[in-house]
Amino acid sequence: MASTKPFSAAxxxxxxxxxxxxxxxxxxxxxxxIVRDAILHVPSAFxxxxxxxxxxxxxxxxxxxxxxxEVYKQQLPEDKFNRANQKFPMFRAAYGTILFYEDSxxxxxxxxxxxxxxxxxPEWSEHTNGMHQFTVWTAxxxxxxxxxxxxxxxxIDVRLETEFKIPSTWRLKAQMVFGKPTSGPAVPxxxxxxxxxxxxxx
Length: 202
Hints:
This protein is an alpha+beta fold. The protein has helices at residues 7-13, 28-41, 58-75, 78-84, 88-92, 104-113, 121-142, 157-163; strands at residues 20-21, 51-57, 96-103, 146-150, 170-181.
């Protein structure tokens, strides 16, 4: 059953959670439905629909983070890898990861079709991908899951493309890790800081 939480409340309660365990209060089918609804209904410039997503659960999720460790160990100096590797087990311990991509072929088609706006489509592509990320993140947390957003691309792109049969025209943008929270958000509610709205809204 979908969450009935008001949209404004869901936005306000969306937070970053790092302490996550490999369980979920909702079935896998509901997780897939949340991502599918975002892919179908989140807007994009000229209805270009360039965003793509890959949902990795359980063993596929764990395999993905094993590959991240492998790639980083091969490509980074030992000291930098050791620092990065302090976080990888925490991400692997979660329930799943959603990979967010943009399809460069589709974007190029719209650049050709609308030459006057050719230079803007890469920026608009980032806009819609961010909207997809926010929509999915908020929806997952409304269902009782916690999430955090990572950016280990581009070092991991080729390995993930090979392992999960990702089309070569998809460009990785972010990795959303999610699972059941085992503690509060990264920044406690009473410590979250806001710049004055008056300075940011006219």
